[in-house]
# Entry
Amino acid sequence: MRVPMIAGNWKMNTTVSEAIDLVKEMLPGLDQIDNVDKVICPPFISLAAVKALIKGGTIKLGAQNLYFEEKGAYTGEISPLMLAELCEFVIVGHSERRHYFNETEDIVDKKVQAALKVGLKPILCIGESLEENEAGKTKQVLIKQLSSPSARIYYFSGLILAYEPIWAIGTGKAATGKQANETIGFIRQHIARQYGKRIAREVRILYGGSVTADNIAEFVNQPEIDGALVGGASLKASEFLSIVRQTSEIKRRR
Ligand code: PEP
# Structure
């Protein structure tokens, strides 16, 4: 049985005091939901304050990025070791990082390896652009993103995947549940062919892209979809709570 997961990617939003207020607002309701992994990913500078707030509870903490070196002269970067002291998860390869910060497959690969080395659990984002989708290249793009040299070790190490079609991120134009389920089913089949059925059965694959409280049910009702990576809607306490609650109820029934 794969434990469902809802992860909130706050992106470059909230000051430290705003992050504290947001966590305080969602904490009582969120803490009580027990059959879903609830992960919040605030900006780096708020991780320590948020960690103190959620201590002893059931909410888990993630970072939005990391650098692949452990330490040294890399001004402004945050290392895996620094994060390992603060959080359990780290988002890697988000399309905004690939696009705005020129992160290549090679860099993404190094970041996943660096995270796993210190015991951080990467949430690896993959997905195709609108042009690739319209040109019928979705499967080809996904296979390339899933085929890094060290991919095998990722799957053995409990990697979490987030399928995020780029055209659906922050656009309000989500994929349909059926579309997302088919593509995630394809990803799982690919993993089964490459690394075996057991790993394919165990790997958690989330959907991401304009998920809201109004459409989450459509996604988590699908058998292949294990939860969601939520951007904009994770910044509203009541909406994020509703997304997690609905996921909990739907997955409990399945
Ligand atoms: C994301 O940041 O990964 C994301 C899916 O954003 P949004 O939910 O705002 O589309």
